Amino acid sequence: MPGAGKFRGGQGVVKSQRFLTPGFVTHESDRHDDAPWGVFGGKSGSGGKYEIYNASKPDEIAQYPAKFSGLRVNEGDVACYFSPSGGGYGDPLERPAQQVVEDVLDDFITPEHAREAYGVVLKSADDGFAWALDAAATEVLRSSMRGLTPRAIL
Asked: Which residues contact 102 (CB under 8 A, 6 or more apart)?
């Protein structure tokens, strides 16, 4: 997930390639173990990774470093590169709650992350398939995360 912030970090890129024949793969990247920093109260993004799996053995997922050369792969292997995601900028509690809801609907973050990082409480939407903002609960949660007494209680 991208780093939380008033302006959240950018999404990483996922690139997957399935090998149709046995072969070799070389991968060169830098610093995928280093999560990009957040600034001015923003949270760090996520580091990247490179893994290879085969659909015939779904429980066997091999992790690889950022750089390697001449790795033997088999027919049906899938090589996946997950690039790092960006760090956030500014206090996550200042991100407009509706933008956090849109991030959940766009599958950038989970509803749990919306609550924990942004103080945004979601409820099932009227259509039963999506999420909607619970504005009153969000105000209470954000106030408590800031150490304040929410207006709804005053």
From this structure: none
Neighbour-count burial for 73-110, b at 16+ CB within 10 Å, e otherwise: beeebebebbbbbbbbbbbbbebebeebbebbeeebbe
Report the DSSP pairing between strands 23-28 and 67-73: antiparallel
Tokens of 31: 């610093």
Q: Reduced to 3 states, what is the DSSP secondary structure of residue 145?
A: helix
Q: Tell me the HSE value of 103 on the side-chain side, using a 13 A CA sphere.
A: 29
pLDDT digits (tens, 9 = 90+) for 5-22: 999 999 889 999 999 999
**pLDDT tens digits, 119-151:** 999 998 777 678 889 999 999 999 999 987 655
Task: Tokens for 92, please give them.
Answer: 């996550």
Structure tokens at 101: 């809801």
Q: Name residue 69's beta-bridge partners.
A: none
Asked if residue 19 lies in contact with residue 107, where contact means CB atoms within 8 angstroms, the answer is: no
The predicted model scores a pTM of: 0.77
Phi, psi torsion values for 137, nearest 5 degrees: -65, -35
Average pLDDT over residues 110-116: 95
